[in-house]
Amino acid sequence: MFQQKPLSSAVELTEYERRSPLLFSETGLRVAMVGIDLSLIFVTVTLAPIIYLYLANGVYQGISQFLKVALESGIVAVLLLIVRRTYELQNLMSLRGQFSNYVQAWLLGFMVVLIEAFMTQTSADYSRGGMLFAFMPGFVLACGARFWIFDALRRRLLRHEIVLSSAFLIVLGERREAETTVARLRARGIMVSGVHCVPAASLAKPPQQKDEILVNAVHSARQVIASGRCDTIYVLAPWSMKNALARLRGLLRRLPVPVVLLPPDTLGSDALNARPVDLAGIAGFEIQRAPLTSTDLVVKRAFDILLAGIALPLLSPFLGLLALGVLITSGRPVFFRQRRRGFGGRTFSILKFRTMRVTEDGPIIRQATRNDPRVTRFGAYLRKHSLDELPQIWNVLMGQMSLIGPRPHAEAHDDQFDPLIETYAMRHHVKPGITGWAQINGSRGETRTVGDMEARVAHDLWYINNFSLRLDLYIVARTVLLAFHDGAAY
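^ thats the sequence. predicted structure below, dont judge the formating
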């Protein structure tokens, strides 16, 4: 989504989106490259002796020994390539540097095999001609196939047929600077889904107008994030605009994606321990990191699916009884749906057993209070033991929620507290949970004051910054115990 035209890359990006490029994570690309190298070495080192033995003796005997040679040399070679960072994207783009590393890896692989054969006195088990064929013609075959494949991948990256990530670019400056940066990012496999240019002249306006301009830039980024087409926000700006950068950084803290600052000049002391980022020749500083790593996300999602997948069928008879209790005591509807904001501020419908005589889901929602007359008698029992939340196991299986995370609030309450608490929106940096660190520490129920909500947000942010599977298991155990007796629940 481009906010300013004409920008030559706007048309290019529109065409790019129609191409439906192949999506890869950078980790996935590295794993694919490792797999290609292992496969090529294994096949060529095994195939070359087969050809030699057939041409020399007309037989296929002695092949099993070369399977071991292929496996050992392949593992050693790939380990060296990993240590030499050959699979880093900036090195994958340089075929000359790859060739030098590949020759060294191939030599080391065979040296290890030969040293092992000498030390174990098993060198006589190998055909010398077969070993020479595996080493020389095998290398030529593997090297040729490898660089043909890698060059094809490099060309597809440059033609934007392979995408490693998507991004939104905010430029404090001229549009021509945006065009150059867009081209360089795309050459690295980054899909620039949108650009918002803020002319330098507009930043010289009065503070209120300047603030509105920066808010509009962040709003544009928020829209692209909501569409699922932004993994990272890049900010291109001269360091002389430190006041605008400081304000922009504060606004971007509300967005649940990493923020990388360009270009690579010395960062001031207010840059929050920024981490250098190498983008295949483009340097920058990551001034905001994703709260959970890729490994954390996989572990957390697997934990959610495993536990929720086991709990739902086991609890189904009990859930049926609770649903019958709601139906008998309160009539229909049995379930209550309400719009909540999840990861990245995206809206979803949360599922609960109905506990009140009203089903509010609008711009004004009154929080439940102690002895609230709107709560039914059976609903009070469900709320006391948090049983009304159990249907949200379905939200977890659907990927809208996690078992553990910040409790999602009604949209009306998000709109109420977001302008009052600077860090409020950071709760949306992870999926919301059925229970969380705030709930087991007594921060639940009605939030009468802004201070009450700030305390809950502080607990939520502590959880986000200290996530671990062990912590999630602890919260699950504490939640089960509190279900029997929790004075803060009503």
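The longest helix spans residues 294-330.
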